[in-house]
Model the fold of this input.
Amino acid sequence: MENIYAQFPQDLTREHFSDLVQSEHVRIERIISRGQSSPESGWYDQEDHEWVIVLEGSAGIRFEDGREIVLRKGDHVKIPAHVRHRVSHTDPDNITLWLAVFYR
Amino acid sequence: MENIYAQFPQDLTREHFSDLVQSEHVRIERIISRGQSSPESGWYDQEDHEWVIVLEGSAGIRFEDGREIVLRKGDHVKIPAHVRHRVSHTDPDNITLWLAVFYR
Done:
């Protein structure tokens, strides 16, 4: 048994990614951010579908079609494979804790 | 976009299960409990692997080999397919909010 709030990193100048589950068809990832965003050119274009929830903090996701959503505690969204998106911002003052499930 | 804390049921005399994602290889489920447990004979014996996290409240899981774990906010555990287990208790006074990912 592990705890998703445990082993929080000290260095929050970069984002931290850790796999909680990795199997043939699914990967579950914990992401910790504070103030980071994707670079302007940094679109995610993923082979897998993604379901992502914000457990703490808040973050914006911008889609290539111009749509932007802001996720706060408990908000979750499905991002189909190859729907290009980027993180437009994360809370600069508090940790944003994401849980992402990637699947075929 | 949806929120995992939204649309909490009024009737907590039974558990509530809702699918957040359902695809060929993965199913993500929200479970809301308050005080329920599996019946003494009610072992779960699942075809799929399960990764489960408690987001609010607390709950016990007992395994067929006698081992019991208690999960509190943020605790998560992997339960391989066909590892028989039951929910030994959930917090009787507060909602227990589970997020479960079932995968092949």
Observations:
- The mean pLDDT of chain B is 95.
- The first strand of chain B starts at residue 2 and ends at 3.
- Chain B touches chain A through 29 residues (CB under 8 Å).
- Chain B has one domain: 16-103.
